[in-house]
Amino acid sequence: MPASRCLGVPYVLDACRSLPLRPHHVPDPRRRAVPSLAPIHATLAALALVVAFPAQAARIVVLKGSDAPRIGSALAALREHAAMPLDVVTIPADVSDTGAASRLAAERGTVVVALGPAASDYAMKLPAAAHVVHCLAGADALRAGLPAVPSEVPAGEQAAWLARLLPGARTVAFLFDPSRNARRAEALAAAFHATGYKTLLRPVPTPAALPAALESIAGRAEALIALPDATVFTRESSRGILLFSFRKRIPLVGPNDAWVQMGALYAIDWDYREVGAACARLAAREAGFADVPLPAPRPRVSVNMKSAAHFGVAWDAPLLRTVDVRHE
User: Fold this and answer.
1) DSSP-derived 3-state class of residue 243
2) DSSP structure class, residue 88
3) Quick one: 80 and 184 in the same domain?
4) Among 92, 27, 93, 82, which Cα is nearest to 59's?
5) Which residues contact 76 (CB under 8 A, 6 or more apart)?
6) What is the pLDDT of residue 184?
7) Is 40 within a domain?
8) Residue 290: predicted pLDDT
9) Mean pLDDT, 10 residues at a time, over the chain (328 residues)?
10) Domain membership of residue 129 as a residue range
11) Same domain, 168 and 113
12) Which CATH number fits the domain that encloses residue 282?
């Protein structure tokens, strides 16, 4: 027997000795050939890639309308959680010009994520066949039932928190720039009205119109509800709005936690990194990924305890346990 026949297999030496010698090029008919598993493994790996990365899921194109902090936070999380390559495009100043965006949306395997209300409204003009996710969606996308995370916490939840945290309020005011936010303000006011509140809508077309708009709600409103608005609720206007709120004893429901830290009574807002992650999952589902979990983002509530004391609002311990952040 050639020495190399059972090289490195000492425990089967006796079995080797019992085998009759045959030329090395003649197969032994008593032994079944074991097929190589390499082709099977390669096939399974290819199938796994097809399932994980469908052929049509080429990339995400993000349309954004601004560089606001909440847009930036959502975009950072969207990049982090995206299952596909991601490009960012700013919508044109002329929102009627959808030519370039329509061509991008028509490319095979493209999922458009419209990030922010302005981008959402712009994306509504794209061809109906486009795969679009509305992240911080405008009112039109929400009414159409498209894949979306709303720009604001749903009005029903906002009204429910107002009833818990400011139970004496019956009339609420909304200030907004009519060229930017008329539809959003009207939709929010209508939702509050449907839950039993009286509403005051005050357009503020320019920063110079803000003092008169504030004075028009003095003695009439029992709460001022802010919505994200680049004309009304700005860093420059914050001091004047908060002074008005304290002097006229009209609690301000701020647009975000930063305003609560400055003196707003409370705010209910999204965690925008959570929003970005949710939009990434919606984009994956639009791209054809199977079994993508879609947990909805949860609103976060922050309160200012000193402001509550100023306005004579007392919150018991069980209620305070339901809020996310307390500023003492």
Assistant:
1) helix
2) E
3) no
4) 82
5) 273, 276
6) 85
7) no
8) 66
9) 36 35 44 46 39 57 93 96 94 94 92 95 92 93 93 92 96 95 90 96 97 97 93 94 98 96 97 95 88 83 98 96 96
10) 59-151+273-286
11) no
12) 3.40.50.2300
CA separation for the pair 136, 152 (Å, rounded): 7
Residue 3 lies in a domain: no
- Structural domain includes residue 258: yes
Domain count across the chain:
2
Q: Among 277, 237, 67, which residue's Cα sits nearest to residue 226?
A: 237
| 323 in the same domain as 221 | yes
- Note whether 167 and 251 are same-domain residues: yes
What whole-number distance in Å separates Cα of residue 209 and Cα of residue 229? 14
State the Cα–Cα distance between residues 8 and 33, nearest whole angstrom. Answer: 21
Q: How far apart are CA 147 and CA 124, in angstroms?
A: 12
Q: For the sheet containing 171-176, what is the strand order?
A: 198-203, 171-176, 223-225, 252-254, 266-269, 300-304, 325-327
The closest of 125, 84, 139, 121 to 285, measured between CA atoms, is 84
- Are 215 and 313 found together in one domain? yes
pLDDT score recorded for residue 252: 98
Which residue is listed with tokens 């860093």? 235
C-beta separation of 114 from 90 below 8 A: no
User: Is 323 in the same domain as 218?
Assistant: yes
Per-residue tokens: 3: 């020495």
Assess if residue 137 is contained within a domain: yes
Q: Which token pair is 34? A: 């074991």
CA 200 from centre of chain: 30
Do 119 and 159 belong to one domain?
Answer: no
Supply the pLDDT for residue 324.
Answer: 97
| Angstrom distance (rounded) from CA 71 to CA 62 | 11
318 and 194 both lie in a single domain: yes
Residue 109, token pair as written in the block:
């395997």
Q: Are the C-beta atoms of residues 102 and 89 closer than 8 Å to each other?
A: no
Q: Is 143 helix (H, G, I), strand (E, B) or coil?
A: helix
Other Cβ atoms within 10 Å of 121 Cβ, number: 20
C-alpha–C-alpha distance, residues 58 and 86, integer Å = 9
Residue written as token pair 């009339």: 171
